[in-house]
Amino acid sequence: MAAQPRGGRARPVILVMYTVCLRNHAAALGGYAVDGCGEFTPTGEDGTPREFLCAACNCHRNFHQRIEMEIPPPPPRRRAPRVARRANLAAASPPPPPTPPQPVVELIYPPPSPPLTDTGSES
Ligand SMILES: [Zn+2]
Fold first, then answer.
1. What is the dihedral of CA 37, 42, 64, 30, to 10 degrees?
2. Average of pLDDT values for 15-30?
3. Pairing of strands 64-71, 13-21
4. How far is the CA of 48 from the centre of ligand 1 (A)?
5. Please, how many CA atoms are within 13 Å of residue 40, restricted to the half-sphere of its CB?
6. CB 78 within 8 Å of CB 33
7. More confident: 8 or 5
8. Ligand 1 centroid vs 71 CA: distance in angstroms?
9. Which of 6, 61, 83, 89 shows the smallest number of beta carbons within 10 Å?
């Protein structure tokens, strides 16, 4: 049992290709000769017996070199935490230094003039 990675639906797509025909047509003669077929082309439709016969060299597909290419799935899209990251940076920054106390300037006004009193109503 191969361990499957968790949490991901996307799996790598394995593309199988059959390329050069490696069948030795001169094996009965003690030599070595290939037909020069460079790529397997199925003769019949999928599901038919002729599916595995090459249309170019009429050899079985197993004589052709099998190449597997693993196509990695596209990376999953992630949402960039824009606002949250900025909020964290703001929270991590030190607080601004306290402002120095402003000097208090006392404005000295001349004392108010004494109110005028009625001189005639004193008892
Ligand atoms: Zn062939």
1. -60
2. 96
3. antiparallel
4. 19
5. 24
6. no
7. 8
8. 27
9. 6
Q: How far is the CA of 40 from the centre of ligand 1 (A)?
A: 8
CA distance 66 to 94: 62
CA of 14 to the centre of ligand 1 (A): 24
Letter for the amino acid at 3? A
pLDDT, one tens digit per residue, over 66-95 is: 999 998 888 888 776 666 555 555 566 667
Give the length of the chain: 123
Across 42-63, average pLDDT = 94
What's the pLDDT score for residue 25?
95
Written as six digits, the tokens of 121 are 């109503």
Regarding predicted confidence, which is higher, 35 or 2? 35
Residue located via tokens 């037909």: 35
What whole-number distance in Å separates Cα of residue 51 and Cα of residue 61? 9
**pTM score of the predicted model:** 0.50
Backbone φ and ψ for 26, nearest 5 degrees, come out as -105, 20
Strand partners, 54: 42
